Amino acid sequence: MLQELETIYKEALEAIASVRDSEALRAWERTYLGEKGSVYGMLRSIGKLPKEERADFGKRANEVKEALLAAMTEREKLVSAAELARDLEEGQIDVTLPGRPHPTGGLHPSTHTLRELYRIWGDMGFQVYRSRDVEDDETNFTLLNIPEHHPARDMWDTFHTTTPGVILRTHTSPGQIHAMRELGDEGNEPIRVILPGMCYRYEQVTARSEMQFHQLEGLAVGRNIRMSDLRGTITEFARRFYGPKAKIRFRSSYFPFTEPSVEVDVECFLCGGEGCRVCKYSGWIEIAGAGMVHPTVLQNGGYDPTQWSGFAFGMGPERMTMNKHDIRDIRYFWNNDLRFLEQF
Ligand code: FA5
Questions:
Q1: Taking CB atoms and a 6 Å cutoff, what residues make up the pocket around ligand 1?
Q2: Could you read off the pLDDT of 220-239 as tens digits, one per residue?
Q3: Total-model pTM
């Protein structure tokens, strides 16, 4: 057995001399020093020897084990140094290569338009007032002079929740009530706000109509506010948004919460009124619904309509963005298609 041990020892030393990487080193360790390896095999069978030989054999076997462990440690150093050198050689960093650009996000086209609107209306003295997306039926309709069962409710196809009376707002106009009640000091203070936000309608989605879209509402309440103030304000806004030559026209219309009501058109800035695809060959593009705040609505906001008056308007930022960039389909806005979004 001693002879056999010496053979294993010699063989192990020869084998380790040709080990070049850590994988081969682990295999070598398993073969000779592992629990099932040959050196331990020898140590385990010590009992087969005659008693008087056991001590010498055991001593020699331990020497062999220690020597092989030392050889392994030595080899490990060589192998890892060689591997490091190889990694450095192969994975060399070329510091002269240009850096890789990180893709960065951009602002959504609607955000661009909304920010421009905030800036212009801010310059004109309107502060931003945020109102809730989830509304009650009462504020979205009744307090805006649209009682239950009134046919005008059909103008806004509504998303209802499972809680009776709780809906998603169909327009930003209910924010008028909140703003008047919160900022008006019980009908004693004038207010001038814009109310931006998402609106929801249970509508057939088409190239021009989404079931989710932004509106930007405007509301001014004060003493002696007249239709001419509405005209002047909207005209000034259009001049700032569409350029100094922008022409505006008002068409009479109907909204239950304004009286009189109008729709505002701007002369088509693409064809200059000649008629083109964007303005549907009419020369005009609709930009807002507007009017003088209905006395009932003023009253619901806490104001005495014999002393106070106001105007309101509601515009659609997506439609405005579509006109500006000749975007032919509103469905691009919420599709999250980077090929569209990256253009802004
Ligand atoms: C209203 O919602 C009124 N609340 C506006 C108003 C406010 C009138 C204050 C008077 C005083 P209308 O339904 O027309 O009106 O919507 C206003 C604007 O929202 C439209 O001109 C359009 O730009 C936008 N809009 C309406 N429905 C959609 C839709 N389905 N998809 C995209 N934009 C829409």
A1: 171, 173, 201, 203, 209-210, 213, 215, 217, 255, 258, 286, 289-291, 312-314, 316, 318-319, 330
A2: 999 999 999 999 999 999 99
A3: 0.74
